[in-house]
Amino acid sequence: MSAAPHAIYIHIPFCTNKCHYCDFNSYVLKGQPVMDYLKAMDQEMARTVEAIPPQTIDTIFVGGGTPTVLEPVQMAYFLNTVKTHFPDWNPAIEFSMEANPGTTDKEKLKAMRDGGVNRISFGVQSFNNHLLHDIGRIHNTDDVYRSLENARAVGFENMSIDLMFGLPKQTLEVLSETLDRALELDLPHYSIYSLKVEENTLFHRLYQRNQLPLPSEDDELMMYQMIMDRLRSAGYHQYEISNFAKSGYESKHNTTYWRNEDYYGIGAGAHGYVNHARHINIKGVNPYIEAACKGLPRLNAFTVDKNEAMEDFMMVGLRMDEGASKTRFALQFEGRQMDEVFHKELTSLLQMELVEELPDGYRLTEKGILFGNNVFGTFVGALSEG
Q1: What is the pLDDT of residues 88-129, one digit of tens each?
Q2: Spatial CA neighbour of 104 closest among 122, 118, 127
Q3: DSSP secondary-structure letter at 87?
Q4: Where are the beta strands (DSSP E) in 220-322?
Q5: Are 29 and 37 in contact, with CB atoms under 8 Å apart?
Q6: What is the pTM of this model?
Q7: What phi and psi, each to the nearest 5 degrees, are found at residue 382?
Q8: What is the pLDDT of residues 19-54, one digit of tens each?
């Protein structure tokens, strides 16, 4: 048995509304049994630490949904349960919470700070109000500035914003203006993602009816190149294909995922990964509450096949600028050597100049960054073919 995870993901599934592109496990807040849900998570945490006693916790990430729809009293209760069940925190812990602009007044932000949260990730998506309306966001740019001001007022310094590109009716000019506004904020961290049209979303239904005016593939590629050029020129390190940070502000929690390391997963629909085993929790709020009162609220749990785990390691590791590490690979897989296991795939990618060799691994080249999905696809089923 390996050591317990040093990272925790916790899911708060409530939202003020459902955005047009969102396929996350989230539910509109009105009428939901919020306190019953928080108490059910308390029970899941208790059973989790009984089964896998925690060691020092380095990172906690609270996602959703919109965790900041919790009222201050609910927020304080929730954060207290986290500290109760996972009491040993690294003095340099990174404790992140997702937030939507407009859902964070000073009282709530103070409850977050008092409960140990020290990093906020705001879902901004765009600084164009028309575009925000068209993708189903209920905040506007004024809400963004007010939320950041409130967060700074109660002591938050480590803040990030999410932006999106490839949105319907988004042009290079509109994106450029959003990048201007974003960079003026001089934040430590930016996450910038391309739109993916997911099933069971309004955008998917519109796409199927040919009513979703998306940018062309060429325009989307130019948008991505613009983002990289602008953020790098402003002094940000592109430490992962969609993430940019000032030195020392890279997301420690997400790096856990990209290094294929273990983490606890708590809450409705949450995933966890411990000792080469993954679990997925029951998704619905009420079914989750009922299940958590009786035992661990699992929808599914399974051991990850060693070959699949090695493929996963390459696909997530190559997302990072630090690359997929040979040393970490050998540690995770009983001394197996990356160069031997993936000799054919790595040789091919090197020849196509999509990856380059580092002293301790491989990473994407500039060309490889633009065609990352092709690189990652190389490893899908690579060890089960034939």
Answers
A1: 999 999 999 999 998 899 999 999 999 999 999 999 999 999
A2: 122
A3: -
A4: 237-240, 243-245, 264-266, 271-274, 277-281, 298-303
A5: no
A6: 0.95
A7: -60, -35
A8: 887 877 888 888 999 999 999 999 999 999 999 999
